[in-house]
Design brief:
The protein is mainly α and 241 residues long. It has helices at 2-23, 27-51, 55-72, 88-115, 127-140, 152-171, 185-205, 211-235.
């Protein structure tokens, strides 16, 4: 549970930049974010332990959940003027850079690094736990087909992308053995900088309607993702998740 708590905490700090301190005074928003990330990381942690998953599968899991969330919960992927019905830039930003690299891979690395490495023998989540988590994910998508700007074409394209990523997730070769946690000093430094930026901007600006902070977060997300990829390429070492 400490890893789930750490990953949820990491993501709530990230959300502080997006929504500001004032936004977190809204109990509905704060409660929804806590439940959203808690259920997601409970499922993800169970999959990691159960099937000995590594960085690639965690990244793909983030992309899958990101596509689902941004399609059926927020609807941010839709673009009425696009022939595809979705905005490819938003799809990549939301599913790969945010949910994949920043929120999932970096979130679990942070939890392992600063709250203690994973106990691979801990108790698995049962059918009841999975049922509750999946039920929340389905309930969160209650606005399905009611999103502003959504279209049948957009849903078809988004669901097709989702199916492709799920296929890749299932058939990508899994590590043959548990990979011991390995710290990365460059990644440590990047994550500490990231958290300081989130706290500094979120606590000082305090408003979720500030467009400048929103644009800055998008730009930083890309920089963050690129730097993580460069660290991974330069060190030739898998990121421990």
């Amino acid at each position: 549970m400490n890893l789930v708590f750490g990953a949820v905490l990491f993501n709530l700090v990230c959300e502080l930049w997006v929504h500001g301190a004032v936004g977190f005074l809204n109990p509905v928003l704060t409660g929804s974010l806590v439940v959203l990330y808690s259920t997601y990381f409970l499922m993800l942690e169970d999959l990691v332990v159960r099937y000995r998953l590594g960085e690639t599968h965690v990244l793909l899991a983030g992309v899958v959940f990101g596509l689902w969330h941004e399609t059926f919960t927020t609807g941010s992927v839709f673009a009425p003027g696009s022939p595809l019905g979705i905005n490819p830039v938003v799809v990549v930003l939301a599913s790969v850079f945010w949910w994949g690299i920043m929120q999932s891979v970096s979130g679990l690395y942070f939890a392992n690094r600063f709250l203690g490495a994973r106990d691979w023998g801990h108790r698995r989540m049962g059918k009841l736990g999975w049922g509750i988590c999946l039920l929340f994910s389905l309930q969160a998508a209650q606005t399905m087909f009611k999103m502003v700007g959504s279209s049948p074409t957009g849903y078809i394209v988004s669901l097709s992308l989702l199916a492709i990523v799920v296929f890749v997730f299932i058939y990508t070769k899994k590590p043959e053995a548990v990979i011991p946690f390995q710290r990365s000093r460059p990644l440590d430094a990047l994550i500490v900088l990231h958290l300081l930026l989130c706290l500094g901007i979120g606590l000082t600006v305090g408003s979720r309607t500030n467009q400048a902070t929103q644009i800055a977060f998008v730009a930083w997300s890309v920089v963050f993702g690129v730097v993580v990829a460069l660290i991974r390429w330069r060190t030739r070492t898998a990121i421990s998740v």
